Batch of 2 targets.
Target 1
Amino acid sequence: MQTEKTTIHPLFVRVTHWINAFAMLMMVTSGWKIYNASPIYDFMFAKWLTLGGWLGGALAWHFAAMWLLMLNGLAYVVYGIVSGHFRRDFFPLSPTAIVRDAWAAATFRLQHRLGAYNAVQKLLYAAVVLMGIGVVVSGLGIWKPVQLQFITGLLGGYDTARIVHFWMMTGIVAFVAVHLALVLLVPSTLLPMITGRAPEHHVRGEAA
Amino acid sequence: MMSILTPKRPNLADLRPALAKVERRLFLRQALSFGALSMLTGCNWGSDDDIEKVLWRVSRFNDKVQAALFSPNRLAPTYREDQITNPFPFNAFYGEDDTPIVDGSDFKLEVSGLVEDKTPWTLARLRALPQENQITRHICVEGWSAIGKWGGVPFRTFLERIGADRRAKYVGFKCADKYYSSIDMATALHPQTLLALDYGDKVLPPKYGYPMKLRVPTKLGFKNPKLIAAIYVTNDNPGGYWEDQGYNWFSGS
């Protein structure tokens, strides 16, 4: 049996991944409580899913966790660009490859190789990074519609900025749902996100 | 109680603060949410009081960040008459029917603190000062917003008339409905901060804050006190009705 191991997630990516998971959890659950104070649509989030106890508590959590989310996210994006992580792991990304891999996945013929992303994964990871940027930018547009009015204006005004913020959150939550479902389907992906390492034969894409 | 939060019904907006009042007792003590969070993260943060202290400290840090972001010259966007929200929603920590009615005939606005002239102001004397009006967006801490038209005395003009110490840090407000709030001096001197006497070209009705309301388009709605009875200038942060319960003090837009 092959026991040689290799790094597939650098330490920087692992640390920022888990800080982001923690910050996102706080931002989303407190955000749901804030949403409930004046819902945009004809539904509210279940109270037990929300953080903060009341609107003031939820806002306090939201405006504290935002620093963690923004600073950690900024560090990750700068690292992703400078280290070549984005270029190497998210690109090239072609529509043909996306259709090919999506079809292969739908017919259960897509091989999972740790450390190498298929085109659908590349698309989703690139999309969630963009939605992360989108949720922060629209959040700033809601928080500072006067001081940062160029952002609010770019988003079509205060009320549409709220709608954009809501849908960016929804996109991120949908991503997390798929992400967690896939970790359950392929549990061998979880440990490398903690230790950074996986058995060599997994990386080579041999039968897992 | 859930029906109170039914969306898209601004006439119920006035009931939300009552609900928030009940809810605030649960401030950060919602066992399920926090319990779930600590279980998921495996962190032991200690007691809820510790968390409350950290959140409170971050909120004070956010006051400083927002004061630094605040530009004394950047104006809030203004709107056209046809963009005004009609009816403009009522909002307070009590229901509309419970709004105190102030008798304007013998009303006098009290002025105190770091000012040269503490003579109380009649409404007639305030009307004799230069007047301005604005159509701006009122943004509530709850997330909804509404566009309205207010007229009155630029607050900077008023502060100049009473000889306020403009190096002082805060301006505090006490209201006839027991509400209270305070703002930073930089915001008090902003060209759009208005001591409003009118709403939509008519005398401010009680529900919008008769005899006067501070209109601050660079801050959230709860930083726009209505039914103002006393104004004072101070270096000790006077806090506010909601601010003392946990809403961020600066709450700039």
Target 2
Amino acid sequence: MNVDRITEKLNILADAAKYDVSCASSGSDRKNKDKGLGNASNGICHSYTEDGRCVSLLKILLTNHCIFDCAYCVSRKNNDIKRAAFTVQEVVDLTINFYRRNYIEGLFLSSGIFKDADYTMERLIRVAKKLRTEHNFNGYIHLKSIPGASAELMQEAGLYADRLSVNLEMPTEAGLKLLAPDKNRQDMIDPMHFINQAIIQNTEEKKLFKSTPMFAPAGQSTQVIVGATPESDQQVLQSANYFYKNFNLKRVYYSGYVPVLVDKRLPALNTAVPLVRENRLYQADWLMRFYGFHVNEIVDSQNPLLDLDIDPKLSWAIRNMQAFPIDINKADLQLILRVPGIGLLSAQKIVAARKFAKLGWDQLKKIGVAVNRARYFIICKSNEFERRDLTGQNIKQFIMAQSQSKYVRNIQTQLNLF
Amino acid sequence: MNTLVYDGTFEGLLTAVFEIYERKLYPVKLLKGEWRNGALFEEVIPVVTDDARASRVLRGLRKKLSAAGVQRLYISHMAEIVGEDCNVLGFIRHVFDSDQNIEEDYGNRYVMRLSEILKMVRREKHRMEAFVRFQKLNDGTFYAAIEPDFNILPLLIKHFKSRYADQKWMIYDIKRGYGLYYDLHDTQFIEMDFDEINKPVNVVAAYSEDEGIYQNLWKNYFNSVNIASRKNTRLHVRHIPKRYWRHLTEKI
């Protein structure tokens, strides 16, 4: 093994892959087969980079050679950077050896597009196949579906991978046309549609024959880049909602655009990464998936942008003061979930605990409720509750005066740069 | 106030519960450790662990709690968190003093505290599943040292045994001086004489040939995936508190 060469390749191809933010390794239920290597179930973050993102998978490109010229991408054809390519065996060896040392949960393999879509997809599949069939590797494998790859290849990929994903890249078709003229949105949607159908079919077959092989048991996900094009949060979230509903996606990832290239279509190089906006989008995403909010409750034509100062649930609450206060000892779980400062687990604990005795402020605090936010919206077993008739704006000011955003420091350091 | 001293085992704890109810010792304080004859603790009552009494209490717990509830209680005690014996005892008393199953009575301080302890223990277990860094030794065994906050090694058996079924491995809790060894068939607890093993010469010589290569590749990978313009040290340290760094290949 030529250590120096492998090291260089790893550096180039990990660096090029890092803008893909997905690192989930959960949602699969692959068991260890015949005393082989590994399994995949709940997902573990084995480390965290200095920017605070989790490292769960060996996330690399097979190659960063690419025939496309997408403006937002470091690996674009016309960018003058070092190029490299792994062989299939090299990726397999790295994966196995990292996995045996408990560095990773598995492999996330993507690639620049060389020659054509099918050729590239076929190579990705070869890595997964080798891991599964020759090394009895049962760890997590996430493969990129290359836009435009044929249905037969997608079918084969699903047999070896736990998760498949196609990146939509831009929230809208217009954005994609502007920045990635070589790419066609339909080419991305076709494989998504195919995988969705195949997963549904596989689930049906599994009900009849238990021995049916797994097909992408961790489903599919996608990613949109935020802040490279002028889409509003409403457009971003509505597009996410559309894909959750119609393609049963497990996750939509929002990637705040990191300026890496000079291009007049893109934000300038010294533009700050929209970290807060990205965070708010994820919060909104959680509200849609776990808290029973409809996308139109979070953003609408009057409020097309998420409030950066406060979280989207609080933002919804102060626009809908007529829904409050609610009685924590009586209200349905669905309503409690809508109270700012009460999370999913706290809400479940409240509903379980109040069967024994009514709950007061101290107990709510112990259970994990952020009382400084929740107190304006609930009553409990106590004479103390908010008696003033406050407007939403008042509440927002009170809450913001009390708490300090964790982003303040970051924002300052970013400003100091220029 | 009565002070009870027991041996730290779960059976010892249950025996103490038996004594408390039988002799109506209340209010009561429970301490772990050896009973010393002296003026320091004047009214200390030593608890002599008794399997028959312990299993009677356990049967009682099983009647009032779900199987998972009993297990959660066991884990909370086994984690050996300093100063929590009284809360565990308080929980058990609440179990026996109520007519119904109180596992979800989070308004009760003992139930809530036990749920907090369990959360801490589970997080530590999960951290170890993430932060164990195996190093390949000459004989093909994969070795890792850990220093978890709580005693969670027994909780790791299931995860590591089903994941690394085809390699010999050992995870050693340096703090508590015992380890877990898997020999391709089963796991067992072991204790080692660490003076011998800790000698730097022995450690380096014991590594397999390619160990250094993969450690370096991993460090390189770790640095390559960082996005400098998103640097967020606070978040980084919150996810990997510094006390874990000394066993993390990528942070050494």
